[in-house]
C-alpha cells in the first residue's frame, strides 16, 4: 500500500477548497446549465457547499468517513435538483468505502472514488457517453487506477486523474445528452459542455490539489 | 432584473408565509424544511396526496393543498426540485393510516429526490406509491431522453385523485386515478417571452419581439421550434395538432380542455385562445364537456400558454365535479 495522503483534516481542507472553487465557478456552471438545462447548477452547488462549510466542516476530530457522510447528508438536504441526490449519493458512498480508516492512501481514494461513481451511476441510471457527471468521474477513476498500476505516487496519480476528468468534461461538448433536462434538446444539446461533468472535474482537480 | 421581492434568498419562505396569512383557514406551513400541509393534517382514514417541485409555478403545488386535492406540497427553490428530507418530513406529517401517494412531475431532479424521500418514508413503515406525470408532447419520449416532461396534467391529476382520496378511496385506487389521468392527457405549451430566475438575474433565454417558442417547458427550457409570431388562432392550432394526434383523441371522445397561462398572460388572451380551442375541438368531432381556464401552472413571469386535453369518462367527470376547497381551486363548497 502507498503512503498516507489524506486524513480527516486533509478531507476537510479538500472540501473547503472545493467549496471555494465552486463558488468562484458558480456563474460559469450556471451559464453552462442555461445553455442546455435550467440555469441553476452553479447556484445550487454553491448553496450546497456553503452549507457543507457551515455544518460539516466545523467539527474537529472525526475520521474521513464521518466528514464525507456529513457532506453527503448536507448536500442531499440543500442542493435540490438532480445534483443534490447525485452528489449526495457520491459522498455517502465515498464515506462507506472509507469506513474505519483514519488515514487514507491513494488506493483508498481510488476505491472511494470508484464507489462514489457507482453510486452516481446507480442513482442516475446514466452510462458513459450520455453527457453527464459520469463522463468526468469515469475517466478519472480509470486514470487513477492506471497510474497506481504503473507505480506512480499518490500526488502524480491524482494529477493524472484530474487531467482525465477535465478531458472527460471537455469531451462532453460534442455529445448529445441522453439524461437529465438537457436530453430534451436532443441534437441541440451538442456543442455545449455538460455542467455536471464540469463540476465533477473541479471536484477531482481540488482533490489532487489537496493531497500530499 | 425587476422583481417584487425583498431578498432573493427569502423568496420561497416569504411566499409561504404570505400564503399562510392569506389562507389560514385552509393550510399550515413549515419553514424548515419548507412545506405546506392541509390544515389539521393528517386526516385520519384518508389516503394522503403529496406533490411538490420547484417554486415559480404558483399556484401549483401549494395552491392546491386543501379539501379534495393535496394534503401536502413541498416547495423547492425557484425551478429547483425539493430535497429528499423536505419531501420525507412532509410525507410523515400528512401520513394517516392509509398510505401516501407521491405525484411527481417527470424531471430528473424531481424523480431522484422523490425516490430518495420515498425510500426514507418506507423505512419508517409508511406505505408510499409514486406516480410520475409525463404529458408534454413537445419532447420525444424515447430511450434517448429523460422522457416527456410533466406539465398541465399534474393539476388535473391532483384534482381527480384528490377527490377519490376524499371519498375514501384506497392507496392503489388513488394512485390508479393519477396514472389514468396521466395516460389520458396530453399537453403542449408556447412562450411569447422568457422568464428570469431571481437567483440568476437575467432572462433564461432571449426571444425577439416578433418571435415565439413552440413547445416550451415550464422552466424556460427550449421547445421544439422558434418561429415568427402568428395570430392566436394559428398558435392554438399548432399546439392542438400534436396534442390531438398523440393520444390520439378520436371523434366522439369527451374531453376536458385546460387553457393555462404561463404567468404573464392576460386572461383576455386566454379566452381568445379558448375560443379557438372550442371551435377546433368541434371541427375534430370532440365533445367539450369540462374546461379549466386561468394561470395554474406557471413559469414565473413568462408570457405564453399551454393547452392540455384530457379524455373523460363518467367516473372522471364525477371526480372532477366533486367539491374542492384550496387556495388555487375551489368549487362545490
Topology:
The complex is a heterodimer of chains A (about 210) and B (about 325).
Chain A: E1 4-7, H1 8-24, H2 26-36, H3 41-55, H4 64-78, H5 83-98, E2 103-105, H6 106-124, H7 134-149, H8 154-170, H9 195-210
Antiparallel strand pairs in A: 1-2
Chain B: H1 11-22, E1 27-31, E2 34-38, E3 48-55, E4 72-78, H2 84-94, E5 100-105, H3 108-123, E6 128-133, H4 153-166, H5 171-183, E7 185-191, E8 211-214, E9 225-228, H6 232-246, E10 254-261, H7 267-283, E11 287-294, E12 304-311, H8 314-321, E13 324-325, E14 330-331
Parallel strand pairs in B: 3-4, 3-5, 5-6, 10-11
Antiparallel strand pairs in B: 1-2, 2-4, 7-8, 7-12, 8-9, 10-12, 13-14
Word description of this protein:
- The complex is a heterodimer of chains A (212) and B (333).
- Helices cover 67% and strands 3% of the residues of chain A.
- Chain A is mainly alpha-helical.
- Chain A has a single domain (4-210), classed as Serine Threonine Protein Phosphatase 5, Tetratricopeptide repeat (Alpha Horseshoe), CATH 1.25.40.340.
- By secondary structure, chain B is α/β, with parallel strands linked by helices.
- Chain B has 2 domains: 10-184, 3-Layer(aba) Sandwich (Rossmann fold), CATH 3.40.50; 185-311, Hypothetical Protein Tm841, Chain: A,domain 3 (2-Layer Sandwich), CATH 3.30.1180.20.
- Chain B has a 6-stranded mixed β-sheet, with helices on both faces. In chain B, strands 9-8-7-12-10-11 form a 6-stranded mixed β-sheet.
- The radius of gyration of chain B is 19 Å and the shape is globular.
- The model of chain B has no long low-confidence stretch (mean pLDDT 95).
- Chains A and B meet through α3, α4 and α5 of A and α2 and α3 of B.
Amino acid at each position: 500500500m502507498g503512503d498516507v495522503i489524506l486524513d480527516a483534516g486533509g478531507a476537510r481542507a479538500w472540501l473547503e477548497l472545493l467549496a471555494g472553487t465552486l463558488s468562484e465557478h458558480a456563474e460559469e456552471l450556471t451559464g453552462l446549465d442555461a445553455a442546455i438545462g435550467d440555469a441553476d447548477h452553479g447556484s445550487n452547488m454553491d448553496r450546497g457547499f456553503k452549507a457543507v462549510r457551515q455544518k460539516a466542516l466545523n467539527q474537529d476530530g472525526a475520521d474521513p468517513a464521518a466528514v464525507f457522510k456529513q457532506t453527503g447528508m448536507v448536500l442531499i438536504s440543500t442542493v435540490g435538483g438532480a445534483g443534490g441526490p447525485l452528489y449526495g449519493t457520491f459522498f455517502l458512498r465515498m464515506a462507506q468505502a472509507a469506513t474505519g480508516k483514519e488515514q487514507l492512501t491513494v488506493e483508498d481514494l481510488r476505491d472511494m472514488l470508484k464507489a462514489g461513481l457507482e453510486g452516481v451511476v446507480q442513482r442516475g441510471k446514466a452510462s458513459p457517453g450520455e453527457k453527464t457527471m459520469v463522463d468526468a468521474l469515469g475517466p478519472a477513476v480509470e486514470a487513477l487506477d492506471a497510474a497506481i498500476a504503473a507505480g506512480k505516487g499518490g500526488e502524480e496519480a491524482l494529477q493524472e486523474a484530474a487531467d482525465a476528468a477535465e478531458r472527460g468534461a471537455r469531451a462532453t461538448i460534442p455529445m448529445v445528452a441522453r439524461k437529465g433536462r438537457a436530453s430534451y434538446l436532443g441534437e441541440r444539446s451538442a456543442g455545449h459542455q455538460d455542467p455536471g461533468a464540469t463540476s465533477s472535474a473541479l471536484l477531482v482537480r481540488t482533490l489532487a490539489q489537496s493531497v500530499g | 432584473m425587476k422583481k417584487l421581492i425583498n431578498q432573493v434568498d427569502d423568496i420561497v419562505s416569504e411566499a409561504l408565509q404570505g400564503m399562510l396569512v392569506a389562507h389560514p383557514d385552509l393550510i399550515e406551513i413549515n419553514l424548515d424544511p419548507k412545506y405546506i400541509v392541509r390544515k389539521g393534517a393528517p386526516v385520519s382514514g384518508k389516503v394522503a396526496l403529496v406533490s411538490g417541485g420547484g417554486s415559480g409555478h404558483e399556484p401549483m403545488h401549494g395552491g392546491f393543498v386543501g379539501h379534495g386535492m393535496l394534503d401536502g406540497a413541498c416547495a423547492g427553490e425557484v425551478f429547483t426540485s425539493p430535497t429528499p428530507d423536505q419531501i420525507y418530513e412532509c410525507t410523515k406529517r400528512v401520513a394517516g393510516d392509509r398510505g401516501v401517494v407521491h405525484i411527481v412531475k417527470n424531471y430528473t431532479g424531481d424523480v431522484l429526490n422523490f425516490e430518495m424521500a420515498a425510500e426514507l418514508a418506507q423505512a419508517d413503515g409508511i406505505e408510499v406509491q409514486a406516480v410520475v406525470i409525463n404529458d408534454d408532447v413537445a419532447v420525444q419520449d424515447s430511450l434517448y431522453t429523460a422522457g416527456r416532461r410533466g406539465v398541465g396534467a399534474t393539476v388535473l391529476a391532483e384534482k381527480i385523485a384528490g377527490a377519490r382520496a376524499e371519498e375514501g378511496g384506497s392507496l392503489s385506487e388513488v394512485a390508479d386515478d393519477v396514472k389514468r389521468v396521466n395516460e389520458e392527457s396530453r399537453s403542449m405549451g408556447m412562450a411569447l417571452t422568457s422568464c428570469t430566475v431571481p437567483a440568476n438575474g437575467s432572462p433564461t433565454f432571449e426571444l425577439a419581439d416578433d418571435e415565439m417558442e413552440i413547445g416550451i417547458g415550464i422552466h424556460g427550457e427550449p421547445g421544439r421550434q422558434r418561429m415568427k409570431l402568428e395570430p392566436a388562432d394559428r398558435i392554438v392550432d399548432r399546439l392542438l395538432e400534436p396534442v390531438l394526434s398523440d393520444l390520439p383523441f378520436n371523434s366522439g371522445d369527451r374531453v376536458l380542455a385546460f387553457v393555462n397561462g404561463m404567468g404573464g398572460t392576460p386572461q383576455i388572451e386566454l379566452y381568445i385562445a379558448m375560443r379557438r380551442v372550442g371551435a377546433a375541438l368541434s371541427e375534430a368531432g370532440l365533445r367539450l364537456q369540462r374546461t379549466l381556464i386561468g394561470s395554474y401552472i406557471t413559469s414565473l413571469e413568462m408570457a405564453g400558454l399551454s393547452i392540455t386535453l384530457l379524455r373523460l369518462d363518467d367516473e372522471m367527470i364525477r371526480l372532477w365535479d366533486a367539491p374542492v376547497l384550496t387556495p388555487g381551486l375551489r368549487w362545490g363548497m
